[in-house]
Amino acid sequence: MISLLMYHQVSNIPEASDPLGLAISPKKFDQQMAFLYKANYKCLTLNEAVFQWRNGLKNQNKAFVLTFDDGYQDIIINALPIMKKYGFSATIFLVAGKVSNSSDWRKSTPASFTKILTWEETQILIKNGFTIGSHTLNHPRLTLLDEQQARAEIRGSKELMEDNLGQTIDVFSYPYGDSNPQIQKIVAESGFSSACGVDRGKWGFYNLWRVECARKDSLLKFFSKVNGLYLPFYRFREESSLGVKLRAFSRRRLIYKK
Ligand SMILES: [Zn+2]
Question: What are residue 220's phi and psi, to 5 degrees?
Answer without folding.
Answer: -65, -45
